[in-house]
Known about the structure:
Layout: H1 2-16, H2 22-29, H3 33-45, E1 49-51, E2 57-59, H4 61-72, H5 76-91, E3 94-101, E4 104-111, H6 133-140, H7 144-153, H8 167-180, E5 183-186, E6 193-201, E7 207-216, H9 222-226, H10 229-244
Antiparallel strand pairs: 1-2, 3-4, 3-7, 5-6, 6-7
Helix pairs in contact: 1-3, 2-3, 5-10, 6-8, 7-8
Domain HTH iclR-type: 2-61
Protein name: IclR family transcriptional regulator
Pfam family, one: IclR_C
Amino acid sequence: MSQTVDRALSILPLLAEGPADLGRVADRLGVHKSTALRLLRTLHEHGLVYRQSDQRYRLGARLFALAQEAMENLDVREIAHPHLVRLNEQCGHTVHLAVHEENEVLYIDKVESRYPVRMYSRIGKPVAITVAAVAKLLLADLPEAERRALAERLDYPLYTPRSTPNADAFLKELATVREQGWATDLGGHEESINCVAAPIRGADGRVVAAMSVSAPNVVVTAEELLTLLPLVRRTADAISGEYSGRTPVKDPTT
Length: 254
């Protein structure tokens, strides 16, 4: 039975390459055509493959529906939380998780610093969208036309002398973030708070969330915080791997 299941599942990656006839499927599996036909018929009955008019087989609509349903039911917060806790245990600083929803970037998880000085951020609270590192990552992933339109309609409050002053500067920053794959907020929202962030990506490579490590200057300098960037990026990659269903990534804190 396990061999039959294995053979049937092996057909799906083959058809992902494009439609294939019975002979090609049999050759790829190393089985007789009659065996390949039985497997294809079973997959066809479940809507996982479809037989075209030219007698070649392709992936079926049911497979795509199942994939979409699975993605919609994934909870990035639930997947990310154990990773955020481990990162917090490793570095001791505040760890945030954020998503982009309805023109706002919202914190959806937070692990508090172990140090006495705490941040006032709250789960469910929008971030300062023009300066926050997590916001830069989420907005940098938008198509260019959307990025430009968003930048033009935003306000640019000057929280500190390091705040992003206008749309042109914001678009330039987003272009840099998009290219390098990480972001910072070094005193842009609060002069005493610094932050480094990395993206969490889905199976299609798009950014679905962003995570960050933040700390006040009285605990670590900006330069010291930046040394944690490789660890933050490895944690984000581990979450991305689990969220997208790729081979699990080794615990980045070990």
